[in-house]
Amino acid sequence: MEYTYEIIDDFLTEGDVAEMLEMVIKHSGPDGKPFFEGTALLDSKTLDENSYPTDVDPNKLLLKIKDKIEAYYLDKYEMQGDFVFSRMFGASMFEGAELAPHRDEDPNPDGQYDGKKRSHVCSIILNDDHEGGELVFQDQGKSVKGRPGDMILFPGYYVSHGVSKITKGVRRVVLVFFYDMLP
Predict the structure, then answer these.
(1) 141-170 b/e with 16+ CB inside 10 Å = b?
(2) 161 — phi, psi (to 5°)?
(3) How high is the mean pLDDT of the chain?
(4) What is residue 124's predicted lDDT score, i.e. its pLDDT?
(5) Which of 139, 110, 105, 136 is nearest to 123 (CA)?
(6) Which CATH class is domain 6-181?
């Protein structure tokens, strides 16, 4: 089943949004350093050993979000391959910033671009007190801003997407990437 994008209203609770917003403000800037890369960093053993990358998340919120996204996607969409979590990071886009339309294509483990590593993106909205900064789906001619707690899910390998210019304020989101790895 192909899809363009989907908005899931109130994917995070108000409390979870507040905690994630604090984490993003404290630990991310325009460079968007990942909270996690690869599933090995998300296993409970790592978290239980207090190897968590921030001091903000006593309730293991990042793992909860990752698990919730996986459950949602697997319930709603038919996988053609294996669900492989890739990375999660906070992104802060400041006034004047924008992201040109693009598609996400990452090489397979062998370094080749053969279409088997199909990237999917979840953009979790943390604030809406900025102007501009809409998620733009160029091929569909649509722009989406969303509200705090909403998640926008789309196939990054398939759908051209970008972010319109921030004209006032700061746009803050959590981005989660996973793959539908074809055999």
Answers:
(1) eeebbbebbbbbbbbbbbbebebbebeebb
(2) -145, 155
(3) 81
(4) 96
(5) 136
(6) mainly beta
Q: Which two tokens stand for residue 70?
A: 């996986």
What CA dihedral angle connects 176, 163, 75 and 39, to 10 degrees?
A: -10
Are 25 and 91 a contacting pair, CB within 8 Å? no
Give the residue from 92, 114, 124, 119 showing the smallest Cα distance to 178: 119
pLDDT of residue 13: 95
Q: Domain segments of the chain: what residues?
A: 6-181
pTM: 0.83
Q: Are 57 and 92 in contact (CB under 8 A)?
A: no
Partners of 175 in beta bridges:
89, 123
Cα separation values, 93 from 59, 96, 147, 173, Å: 26, 8, 16, 9
Neighbour-count burial of 120, counting CB atoms closer than 10 A to its CB (0-12 exposed, 13-18 middle, 19+ buried): buried
